[in-house]
Amino acid sequence: MIRARAAGALALVTALLTAFVPAGSAATPPAAAHGSAALVIGQDTVQNTLQEVLGPGSAGVEITQVSPIVAAPGQPVRISGTLDVADLGIDLSPSAAPTSEPTTGPADGEVEDQADPEPTPVATVEVRLAPERITDGAAVAEWASSSSPSAGPLLVSQPVLAGDRTRTAATTVPFSITVDDLDPFVATSYGIAPISIQVYLPGQPAPVRVVHTFLGFQATKEYAPLGLTVVVPFTLPADPALIGAFGEERATAWEGLLSESGRLSEQITLAAAPGVVWAVDPLLLSAGPAVVATDPSAFDANGEPLDDSTSQGTGEAGGATSGASNGTASPRPEDGASDAPPDDLPPDPTPGPAARERAVREAYVQRMLEAAAGRDIMLLPTGDADFGALPEQGVVGAGPDAARRLLRTTLDVEEATTLLENAGAAVRPVLWPAGGMWSAGQDEVLRSGAGGGGWDVLVDTGSIAAADLAAAQAAPLVGPRGGQLLAYESALSTRVATAVRDGGLLGGLTLMAEGLMTLNERPGTARHQVVVLDRPADLLTEDAGTDESPVPVDLQAPLRVLGQVPWLTLGQIPRASAPGELEATPTVDPGGIPPTALTEERLAGLGDTEARLEPAAALRVNTGIDLATRGRDSLGQLLSSRWRSAQEDWDGAYAPLADQVASTFTSIHIPARDIAFLADSGLVRVTVENSLDDGLHNATMELAVDHPVLRIESGPQPVDVGADSRSTVSFQASAIASGRVSVTAVVRTEDGIILGEPTTFTVRVSPTSDWIYWLLGGLAGLVILIGIVRTVLRRHPEP
User: Fold this and answer.
1) I need a labelling partner for 439 at 20 to 30 A (CA). Which of 66, 331, 357, 517 fits?
2) Which domain holds residue 32?
């Protein structure tokens, strides 16, 4: 409705501006000058009209106290706050000096100073009721977000005095106003009174600021209190830098989230109130890919490792090992190489980006575990995997098959569970499909595979069978195939999230009113409502100031308000008490839910990349460890729900990894050229070229001939080729007979995957055989015989 008002006001602005600008203002200078003056008048009129339509706003008025939150019959309610002098335009200049001269007392002749005049108010604050009763949650949200003046019954009006008005440097003026008794204005035994706090400046008939909020009252308890649990997600944002190559950009992104002043670190404090359940991505309980020992940033100034765990894993991009250009692989940590840094690496006292990332993530894990003690934790699948994209069993194809296989790998959260339980947290693994949309078919796929039986599912009430909806609103249900179904209402959660982001006291009063509307749907039935703040729960809002510095949302303040509301009980989620069924097709309106980034095409590509990741890592000399660790971590994060709202970023994050894996298998080329084999046995030499910017090893080449005139005696031979270079692979061969044969050369990984394209070339075989030796022997004998004859003839010359 507010947007509709804004649209109407915008149309009115256009009409007014058109009416006040003369038609000929662009043609002649005099008309232009006149048109400018007319435009100023039009803008004033527009501003007044906008204020009438949208209200004067609430900026500059801060409500700091409402006491009590829920009043008993006859109990006064005090409302305190401050007025911003500059924002409201309050005049704090000193009062005018007295005009009369001092007078002389008639009896003693002493001079008597004239008494100071009574201080004049700098503003007036009045409290009025809303013109109409509020009976549903949508009306609560509309009243809280609007700021139109109310013409409802006046509860109290009081001038605001500035005290010593000579102190013109004051930036705020405090006020306190008391509503003596709400009884004459309420007609129920308990409930809320929507009020409008309106601020007037002297001499102005209309309020300059209006704040809408709620007061609570209760005469008798005629309800079963509503249980309430607020779920705050701790998940990562859709930032491609978090899964990119190691470097400054990636390290800065992680530091912005997890450092002591980072957003998710601040959220630990902001969401620490009792009754708040955390939904945690297990990635936040991991230090991430380790730093390779040969990375200089992993060592201190004395050359000592910064962490014992840095002897494994990966570090800076391209820095896993010192690759040789001749294709010889440097030893990996698991090959038995020393963990000490090489002698030729100078120690660097400043940690590199990879080491900084690991350090900040390790520190965050400790902060999270310390804060988790005694708290209920919903542990999400690794990376907050998008199980809303889980296809049902009857859907077939490369994409659906990959989805079922890859998503199931994210259910292994044993390590994170152990960490949290050892820290004293109560852990329950919970799936959270986007928008709470979860079908009976998806639940069957989850439960039928390994590891899926023990997971609870956080679902919207639209996913629960209609017959079981009432039971689901009282407590979680036991699903038909195991696990618990934790139901929440997305519409209520959205309104509550808005109130929470309003923060502070006013946000709590709005939550009080929202809870009452939900309670009054069935006031005599004991129920428990789960309220979910949508992911990511950014409890740091951007300041309206020019510096755009983040301002934290005070989540604890509104929850403290709810702790004083008798019809609401904050607490943890109860255990399931009744069986329940899921709808075959959820009745949730998907209009506000972004589509999944895990389309069939993307899933098919992910599945292929995941299957080739380990072989590609084993082939690469310098970047293999990085690909095996950081690459696998990145693939897991690409399954996350967070990419629903950032589809292009998903493509940008996936493309470098997919290209790195794919290029590993296409960079090998064997030039085709004919070979002459002129021997009974010898070597057949084949050249292999590598166009990759990294050396390749752990591959073999094999030759296959199409005719038995040439026999390859050697089996598959190892291939080691440096970055952007070539190498020669030799095979022992034997010639059986003369002829031409076709030889096909194939390079394979250790797992049998073909690298590049097989190459076929021709070998011309000409074996020497035994006759050549007889021929050579005969020729040698003939030469000897001729020599003997010539010698004899020289000894017996003719007479």
Assistant:
1) 517
2) 2-54
